[in-house]
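Inverse folding, one chain.
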């Protein structure tokens, strides 16, 4: 075997080592991705969060809100909303805020009407 054949043999050995190293690295990456996927699937299955959040039934009143009278300050303090995966249930928060806005608008209209009548009564 002459010098040029030895050089080719060294280059081929280096290529084989490089290919082996890349194959090993890709094997580890694939294994890590597979493990992460399994962990994700287990977490989703255990927490039950793969489904979509159920809609609030029509005409339902979130717990703590009076249906028969305007809200008072203590009603706001007593409101309890269910916790969802990343915070409060958005549909319940939206319903409470909409109700508060409606009650405040009604109260503002009544105050304006009373103020308008006050000079007439004097």
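Residues assigned per position:
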């Amino acid at each position: 075997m002459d010098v040029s054949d030895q050089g080719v043999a060294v280059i081929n050995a280096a290529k084989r080592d490089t290919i082996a190293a890349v194959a090993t690295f890709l094997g580890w990456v694939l294994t890590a991705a597979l493990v992460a996927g399994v962990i994700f699937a287990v977490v989703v299955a255990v927490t039950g969060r793969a489904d979509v959040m159920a809609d609030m039934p029509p005409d339902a009143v979130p717990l703590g809100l009076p249906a028969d009278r305007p809200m008072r300050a203590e009603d706001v303090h007593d409101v309890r909303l269910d916790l969802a995966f990343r915070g409060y249930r958005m549909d319940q928060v939206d319903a409470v805020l909409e109700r508060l806005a409606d009650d405040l608008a009604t109260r503002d209209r009544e105050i304006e009407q009373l103020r308008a009548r006050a000079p007439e009564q004097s």
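The helical segments are 3-47, 73-78, 90-121. The longest helix spans residues 3-47.
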